[in-house]
Amino acid sequence: MSTEEQLFNFDGLVGSIRHFHDELVTQASRAVNISLTLRNWLIGCYIEEYERSGIDRADYGDRLMDRLAEILTAQGISRCDRRELYRYRRFYLTYPQIVGALPPQLTQFLNASVRQRLFAGSGIDFQDSRSLIVESATPQSRIAGKVLISRLSFTHLAELINLEDETRRAFYEVECIRGNWSVRELKRQINSLYYERSGLSTDKKKLSELAQQNAEQAKPNLAIRDPYIFEFLGLKPEEVMSESHLESQLLKRLEAFLLELGHGFCFEARQKRILIGGEHFFVDLVFYHRILKCHVLVEMKLDGFSHENIGQLNTYVSWYRENVMTEGDNPPVGILLCTHKNQALVEYALAGMDNNLFVSRYLLKLPGKDEMQAFIEEQIRSGL
Length: 384
Prior knowledge:
Distance between the termini: 49 Å
Number of strands: 7
Number of helices: 18
Helix content: 40-55%
Mean pLDDT: 79
């Protein structure tokens, strides 16, 4: 028996399958990210070029984005509301070097004058994408377009285009790629003023080592949970956003439980996406209560109670009060369910309600805490 045959034992079999599985998952995740990023860049390109030279652009004026968003959304093209269209145009203007990453079948969508202006104006050698940093027409170094779209998701890039200073943005681009940061880690580093601290530091290399040492890395197998990606692929939020099988099953049974109580619950949505301060959040369950005439938001956490959890739910309730509540509605209510081993804890979020009689009426019509806790604990013990 040869040495290679001896080495290929059962553990080797498992290891080999694990290795090529992980590699192909990474490739698939990267391919979807690249397609989404190029789509958004091209949308931004077309909008900018239309505003520059569209023959009927004067007919739309300030209404262009509203009208375009209305039509594209009606045609089922994901993430094309007015806010996103402005984001795509800014993305295009911020990263013109991405033109060099367009494959031939997409480059043909650009007319000749646009192609000539983009390539000539960039000063980038698009034939050589082997190095991370390439020289641009300005003293500012730029990351090659092919590297950008292969190493950073569009959600990363959407955060970066908010940084107006080019040097600051380039710093986070390089550090994010070097450390394979998750989007959450990128936000954390920006909010912690890593760039500014690096500028003041007398030992920049040491500071960089410390920043990268504890950084949360991006995981390709979770990339599909990105809101941009699952909508781009035509997936429903609940198909990808549940944290675990247990949570998913509990939410399904809880939904049925509340509807069967007969207290007036009308189901509205699962994993309802809301936008707060430029960041997307997902509410586990949303009901409209026909007796109380208000929305009821339900959040489930597979851990013990924390003030952070109730604070998050209060934020959702406040957002619904400001953005969804209409004339004739009462203020929304939140129900927080925390599970820990075989125990459950129920808390209510009544953001902005300071009328004790009003609050009492709400609690009288909603399921009692004991009733909710008993149901959750029974489901957990049953093993779902």
